[in-house]
Amino acid sequence: MDATTDKDPLVQEQIYNALCYLGESEPEEILNSCDEYLRQHDKLAYPHRVIILKAMETVVKNNIALLDKSTAKEVIRDWQQAASNVLVAVGQRFINKVMEEVLTKFQPGILPHYFVVQTFANLSVSNGE
């Protein structure tokens, strides 16, 4: 997974494809490996983190019926936290665009998802003046 930091988009795409391919035969192993890698590399640049998150998303979507309930729950929580962190980081430069997207998740009469509220709060804190 260290190759995700390669600047060549073709290498990045190959890493994504390899993770997805391996995820077809061993989805829980790949999801756990990606999760562990992201935890160990919490300073990984966001464009590179996104490659791993997208691969995790694809593995989950393609193998949802095969995943153990506890694995799915853990991965989804971690995946959502990482995605929230990406939005907050991008929001430090493009706050208007990120806020526009986050605000679309607030619907009248519907309680927003926990991570939507957390993302909104973290955007406020990281961009407060």
From TrEMBL:
Its Gene Ontology cellular component terms are:
cytoplasm
The record's InterPro entries line, in alphabetical order, gives: Maestro_heat-like_prot (IPR045206), MROH2B-like_N_HEAT (IPR056282)
- Report the residue ranges that make up the MROH2B-like N-terminal HEAT-repeats domain in this protein: 19-127
**Domain of life where this protein originates:** Eukaryota
Full protein name: MROH1 protein
Q: Which gene encodes it?
A: Mroh1_0
Supply the source organism for this entry.
Answer: Smutsornis africanus (Double-banded courser)
